[in-house]
Amino acid sequence: MDYATLNNGIRMPILGYGTLRIPVERCAECVSEAIRKGWRLIDTAKNYANETEVGKGIRQSGIDRKELFVTSKLWFKDYGYESAKRAFDATLDRLGLDYLDLYLLHQPFGDVYEAWKALEELYEEGRVRAIGVSNFHPDRIVDMGFINKVMPAVNQIEFSPYFQRWEDKRVNDQYGVQVESWGPFVSGNRPELFSEPVLQDISKKYGKTPAQVILRYLTQQGVVTVCKTERPERMIENIGVFDFKLSVGDMAQIAKLDKGRTMSKDHRAPEDVKWFHTSGIALPDLVGRGRYPQDDAHRTHEGEPRSVRFRTAR
């Protein structure tokens, strides 16, 4: 495993195991299996409604906690100074951990600055080893740098061959913020992405799969990358990207796949921002079964079509 060094000196694995949309009944097993297969960065969030299962999987793995890098995220409905601290305590309780390695503001909405003050204090108290943000555009990163005591260590953003945000990365790099990719396989467009002739040809050249080529393309250029799978053989496949190096020419070909637009939600588009505030929830069916019943962030927005209500915010 290769590592990125954050702006506070902490080393972060450059590949991470994501847990978004893993069925709750399989989550602990998948996390435990991934750790046994060599994954050390485990990524979850309050909004995924699976922190309890992730914590169980960590314990079942038998791996020393110090060997792991555990990330969770604060949902924006909990932004605010006191509410952020309460949410952090609840996250630790659900995970069954004494500290986090990384805690992120999940979205660039709501009372970002009061929430960040709370994260700064948690960091100063040693309860979290690094703090950061998710889905923040470069202008917000610059703003954070001028008005806060602690600069974000990480910015987790959508980043894939179809949406290559190299200019965003340049600005984050300039301010010492490590870019981390979510959605490297473009979620629902994964079959389309994997069948791209360029990726097929490069995969054959190196004796690798399209997924491995994508992960190598991102990590080779310093992008920490989180991906998800429930299949043990894919866990092995996805982590097997450190025994080859893409040529400059091959990377130039992959760069041409960039469509220059999000494949998910646009965090600056008014309608998408409205969606986050009204329907940007995770797994609302779990709320009805008593999971996180106290959390407003997990309640359904009545009146929305079923297809909208059951989408998950990344």
Automatic annotation (TrEMBL):
InterPro entries in the cross-refs: AKR, Aldo/ket_reductase_CS, NAD(P)_OxRdtase_dom_sf, NADP_OxRdtase_dom
SUPFAM superfamilies named among the record's database cross-references: NAD(P)-linked oxidoreductase
Keywords for this protein: NADP, Oxidoreductase
Segments forming domain NADP-dependent oxidoreductase: 21-258
Active site per the UniProt annotation: 48 (proton donor)
Domain of life: Bacteria
GO molecular function: oxidoreductase activity, acting on the CH-OH group of donors, NAD or NADP as acceptor
Positions annotated to bind substrate: 106
Site (Lowers pKa of active site Tyr): 73
Residue ranges with Basic and acidic residues bias: 292-307
Gene3D superfamilies: NADP-dependent oxidoreductase domain
Spans annotated as Disordered: 287-314
Family, as annotated: Belongs to the aldo/keto reductase family.
Protein name per Swiss-Prot or TrEMBL: Aldo/keto reductase
UniProt source species: Bacteroides salyersiae
Upper taxonomic lineage: Bacteria, Pseudomonadati, Bacteroidota, Bacteroidia, Bacteroidales
